[in-house]
Design brief:
The complex is a heterodimer of chains A (about 300) and B (about 300). Chain A is mainly α and about 300 residues long. Chain A has one domain: MetI-like (MetI-like fold, Orthogonal Bundle). By secondary structure, chain B is mainly alpha-helical. Chain B has 2 domains: about 30 residues; about 240 residues, MetI-like fold, CATH 1.10.3720. In chain B, helix 4 crosses helix 15, helix 6 runs antiparallel to helix 9 and helix 11 runs antiparallel to helix 15. The model of chain B has no long low-confidence stretch (mean pLDDT about 90). Classes of the chains: A mainly alpha (about 300), B mainly alpha (about 300). Chain A: It holds the Pfam family BPD_transp_1. Chain A: Belongs to the binding-protein-dependent transport system permease family. Chain A: One of its GO terms (cellular component) is plasma membrane. Chain A: Keywords: Cell membrane, Membrane, Transmembrane, Transmembrane helix, Transport. Chain A: It is a multi-pass membrane protein.
């Protein structure tokens, strides 16, 4: 190690190690992509291969032949993600802003009330009963959105960001006669754009990747988000064929690309996040870093 | 509170009514979705049914708890939860610490590339990850069994053999979380004052000495903080991972059934709401005591690192 770190090959060794590990991180997912592009009979004969013997988009064509189910999944996921992210971001930021104001008397005790929910929770069952029996929002779009509107960690993260805004700015706006709401919308929100982007990404990520709420509360076929649909497909190979039949399109069930179509759906469910992720990675990393330091 | 105090309170509230107005929608959600369920834990002492509701259902004392703790499941799920979490914490933290120390020596561009690739699995949901593990472990078509066959070993029916799953789950956890965990330590390392290293290299210290004498000691507080936070959460597990990766296969419960999956099944599969809530309360209480205990420990250790 002594000599190695002085010589360039010490660095090469590190690079090589990370390259190998990076491949380890990506290859498993490449298998999914590769299977989705394979020929169904090749899979039956040779098993899953990293490089398909024959590349075909048959699985994707098949899914797009009768896209009703898939489109409905996308529709639900996109609706929930967009509405949920906007609503959650606004409500979270408002609360976090009030808590970040040092001249707000209740800030400390209210912050503790938010923080305490990270230490103790009533658990799954009372929460489930509350939503199902008392709020009665189960089996609706609302149940896919409302429970995640406020996440304590997001509030505290946002509060950390907003504490950095100089109080003098707010003071001078007050002297000019601006009320709290106007200060919030016209001064704080524009100043907090990077923080908003970071937290919005966290929230969108949670909504897009969620299957939990659907698993507990959704029965209506038309309200199933993409991730939960994906789970049901994995759970039940027949799911695809029955949904195809019910859509009144005559398909030879034996010619159904079961294995490849399943993987194609997995690719399509993971796709949007993976496209968005490189552009927002900067923000994401920043948010995680602040979160780690301010904890 | 005396009259003067109340007066002050109301005056303060009126003065900051704008801020209170901003906070109210958020607080409402906190109260409804977090504090109401806390009151709802009384359901653990009731024979709950949906038509009578929380208030109408009969009290049954500790019967729900008795049923759980007299079963073999109590020991099994507690053991699995703690041992698997310990394995995740140790493996992921040690490796990501090594990764972070190595990353510091690389150029900015290399760091960026590796950060992106290591981070990639973090963005996949556990459902998508379960497709990945399925592609690897499928008994007939899976990648792993083909490899085993090629090297002349017997194939394994992965979804029926519980003894392999602690390793599989640990690997999957590492795979998904290594990027996140490495980033945290890497950021901690970047925060160390550069002048320490400059002074050390003027005095002739090599990279290894700098690592063990400067980087690690200065990172100790971050490492303890992160580890203790994880230990405080040791009674909880990532439900999606345990439920989807194992395909909820009963043959694997012996090593993979954790408190969260057990509660879910009691609630949704067997419909035993009373027991589900009793186990949930057991988890919440022990989890809370652990967090508080761990925090007290940290406080003793180093006051600045305490969470509250």
């Amino acid at each position: 190690m002594n000599a190695a770190s002085k010589l360039p090959w010490g660095k090469w060794l590190t690079l090589a190690w990370f390259t190998v590990f990076s491949i380890f991180c990506i290859i498993p997912f490449l298998y999914i992509v590769s299977i989705s592009l394979s020929n169904e009979s090749d899979i039956a004969n040779y098993g899953y291969k990293l490089i398909p013997k024959h590349i075909t988009t048959h699985a994707y064509d098949f899914l797009l032949q009768s896209p009703k189910q898939l489109l409905s999944g996308y529709g639900v996921s996109i609706t929930v993600t967009v509405i949920g992210t906007v609503a959650s971001l606004l409500i979270t930021t408002k609360l976090a802003y009030a808590l970040s104001r040092k001249d707000f008397g209740g800030a400390n005790s209210l912050s503790f009330i938010v923080f305490f929910t990270m230490l103790f929770s009533g658990g799954l069952v009372p929460w489930y009963i509350l939503i199902k029996r008392y709020l009665q929002i189960d089996d609706s779009l609302l149940v896919l959105i409302l429970p995640y509107i406020i996440m304590p960690w997001h509030v505290l993260l946002m509060k950390g960001f907003l504490s950095d805004i100089p109080p003098a700015l707010i003071e001078s706006a007050k002297i000019d006669g601006a009320g709290e709401w106007r200060i919030f919308y016209q001064i704080i929100l524009p100043l907090a754009k990077p923080a908003l982007a970071t937290v919005a990404l966290f929230i969108a990520f949670i909504y897009w990747n969620d299957w939990w709420l659907a698993m507990l509360f959704i029965d209506n076929q038309n309200l199933i988000p993409l991730q939960y649909m994906l789970y049901r497909i994995m759970n039940n190979i027949q799911f695809l064929s029955t949904s195809m039949q019910s859509s009144n399109i005559s398909i030879d069930i034996t010619a159904m690309p079961n294995e490849t179509a399943r993987m194609a759906i997995a690719v399509m469910a993971a796709g949007p996040i993976l496209f968005v992720f490189p552009f927002f990675q900067k923000y994401f990393v920043k948010g995680l870093t602040v979160g780690a330091v301010k904890g | 509170m005396g009259f003067a105090k109340w007066n002050n309170f109301w005056r303060g509230a009126i003065r900051s009514k704008g801020l209170i107005g901003l906070a109210i929608p958020g607080l409402l959600f906190v109260i409804v979705f977090y504090y109401l369920p806390m009151l709802g834990v009384v359901v653990a002492f009731k024979d709950f049914n949906f038509s009578d509701g929380l208030f109408g259902s009969k009290w049954v004392g500790l019967q729900n708890f008795k049923f759980f703790f007299q079963s073999d499941a109590a020991f099994q799920v507690t053991r699995n939860t703690i041992l698997l979490n310990l394995s995740f914490i140790i493996i992921t933290n040690v490796l990501s610490l090594v990764f972070a120390l190595l990353l510091v020596g690389l150029s900015r561009r290399a760091v960026k590339v590796f950060q992106t690739t290591l981070f990639f699995p973090y963005f996949l949901s556990w459902v998508v990850v379960s497709y990945v593990t399925y592609a690897l472990l499928n008994p007939q078509l899976g990648v792993l069994n083909h490899l085993l066959e090629n090297f002349g070993f017997d194939q394994v029916n992965w979804y029926l053999e519980s003894k392999f799953w602690p390793y599989i789950l640990s690997l999957a956890f590492l795979w998904k979380n290594i990027g996140y965990s490495t980033l945290i330590f890497y950021t901690g390392l970047l925060g160390i004052d550069k002048s320490y290293y400059e002074a050390a290299s003027i005095d002739g210290a090599n990279k290894w000495q700098q690592m063990t004498k400067i980087s690690l000691p200065l990172l100790t507080s971050l490492i303890t903080l992160i580890t203790l936070l994880q230990v405080g959460k040791i009674f909880y597990s990532d439900f999606g991972m345990f439920y989807f990766l194992t395909a909820d296969s009963g043959a694997l419960y012996q090593t993979t059934d954790v408190i969260d999956t057990y509660v879910f099944r009691a609630l949704r599969v067997s419909g035993d709401i009373g027991m589900a809530s009793a186990v949930g309360l057991y988890q919440a209480l022990v989890g809370f005591l652990l967090v508080v205990g761990v925090n007290a420990l940290v406080r003793k250790f180093n006051k600045d690192n305490a969470i509250f």
